[in-house]
Write a structure and sequence with these properties.
Blueprint (H helix, E strand, L loop, with lengths): L7 H21 L2 H17 L1 H17 L4 H7 L3 H16 L7 E6 L5 E8 L2 E6 L4 H12 L3 E5 L5 H17 L7 E3 L6 H7 L7 E5 L2 H10 L12 E5 L5 H13 L8 E7 L5 H10 L3 E4 L1 H4 L6 E2 L13 E7 L2 H11 L4 E5 L3 H10 L4 E4 L18 E3 L7 E3 L5 E8 L7
Parallel strand pairs: 3-4, 3-6, 4-5, 7-8, 7-12, 8-11, 9-10, 9-11, 12-13
Antiparallel strand pairs: 1-2, 2-16, 14-15
Helix pairs in contact: 1-8, 2-5, 2-7, 3-7, 5-6, 6-7, 10-11
Length: about 425
């Protein structure tokens, strides 16, 4: 626990200094040591399941008393199954191929110099996140496996859960002889600590925000440290005229309702005017207790549909609510997505391969799908292990960010005595 006389800047500065020292020690650790540390951390999560569940119960009670929405409570909730899933994700990261030292490319210059670009850690990474306590384990595992030290600042609503998970993680990596300061949890819920992290240029190498629009906006506005942005998941699923009706119904239902509170959930459904089973798709959502806010054409399909406002096309509900509109063909669907997408994940459901390929090429999002639920927008589902976030930007990393996205590169030049003329 920190000295309460410290200012937020002093606290973050001290944590960053310890993290820098830890990252140097990690550079000397073997890949096998880091993998073993994560395997032991995964086992520690399993061993301390009861303690983590008790800590989470405190957070859940406080969050319910503070009026958190059902979808946000679902993000916060931990049970033995979710803790096992988190532990399995940490163990999976331990088994992933080591990205460090990978030769990205190699060239030989006419003068005989051999140039290589080689993957190396980024250094010290600050993670600022809300609600989901599993991010404590996911982010820590990915950062450490890629040779980085992590400074984790979770939301106040998950403070007890985060502390319990952090304790298990450092127990595991410490047992493997790795520096426990490679994974540090900011001990205060004071929002000023976030500001101190954002201003820690030269101390923290990268900030990764994971949370709602207001958090990401604050980070992007205030940061003096490079930011790996994860914007809201304004995801659209477009049902093309050629879509198989049963597939369309099942995929739309899954994309919206499997888990409404995750960033991969579909928030807008576009139905092609020529698709023959529009009514069945809308009825399936309504029957599943999803509120549908539609344009006039969609309202005409079912009396339970309520009118959509202009704001609905730009709202990430993270709840059992969806906006739905009818479009006249692929061009209109593409135009709607271009106007309202957050460039996270967008999908087409179609049997027409030519239309699908045009959609995949035209939509400018980090993830574009054909005949698949947008809920697959997840690093684990992509075979990357636990993800640190889904980047909607265009620089450094895009889409699910896992090990490779947490590295940079350096140039290694080998010569035989060449002098520049």
């Amino acid at each position: 626990m920190n000295d309460l006389t410290q200012t937020p800047e002093m606290l973050i500065g001290a944590m960053a200094a310890r993290a820098r020292e830890a990252s140097a020690l990690l550079a000397q650790a073997s890949d096998a040591d880091k993998a073993r540390g994560l395997e032991l951390a995964a086992q520690a999560l399993r061993d301390h399941t009861d303690a983590i569940v008790r800590a989470n119960a405190q957070d859940m009670d406080n969050a319910a008393a503070n009026g958190l929405s059902p979808s946000m409570l679902d993000r916060l909730r931990l049970d033995p199954a979710r803790i096992e899933s988190t532990a399995a994700g940490v163990a999976q990261v331990a088994q992933l191929p080591n990205p460090l030292g990978e030769v990205i490319d190699e060239t030989r210059r006419p003068n005989g110099l051999v140039l290589q670009r080689v993957r190396v850690p980024l250094g010290v990474i600050g993670i600022i996140y809300e609600s989901r306590p599993n991010v404590t384990a996911d982010a820590a595992a990915l950062c450490l496996r890629a040779g980085n030290a992590a400074i984790l600042r979770g939301g106040s609503e998950a403070i007890e859960s985060n502390r319990a998970i952090h304790a298990a993680m450092i127990e595991g990596i410490g047992a493997a002889g790795l520096p426990v300061n490679a994974i540090q949890l900011v001990p205060t819920t004071d929002r000023a600590a976030v500001g101190a992290m954002l201003r820690a240029a030269g101390l923290i190498d990268l900030i990764v925000p994971r949370g709602g629009k207001s958090l990401v906006a604050r980070v992007q506005e205030e940061a003096r440290v490079p930011v790996l942005a994860h914007l809201d998941g304004m995801n659209t699923s477009y049902v093309h005229a050629s879509a198989d009706p049963e597939m369309a119904r099942e995929l739309i239902l899954n994309a919206k309702m499997r888990r409404t509170g995750i960033c991969g959930a579909t928030e807008t459904v576009l139905l092609d005017a020529a698709f023959p089973a529009k009514r069945a798709v809308i009825a399936a959502l309504l029957d599943a207790k999803c509120a549908v806010r539609g344009d006039m054409a969609v309202q005409a399909l079912d009396s339970r549909v309520t009118p959509a406002s202009d704001e609905d096309w730009d709202t990430e509900y993270l709840d059992a609510i969806v906006a739905a509109a009818e479009v006249n063909g692929l061009d209109e669907a593409l135009a709607h997505i271009a106007a309202h997408s957050s460039h996270h994940t967008d999908a087409i459901i179609a049997e027409d391969a030519e239309a699908a390929e045009r959609f995949l090429n035209a939509v400018d999002s980090a993830i574009v799908m054909w005949n698949a639920s947008t809920q697959f927008a997840d690093g684990g589902e992509f075979g990357l292990g636990a993800e640190i976030g889904i980047s909607t930007g265009r620089l450094h990393a895009r889409g699910p960010v896992a090990l490779e996205g947490l590295t940079t590169y350096k140039w290694i030049v080998r010569g035989t005595g060449q002098k520049r003329p």
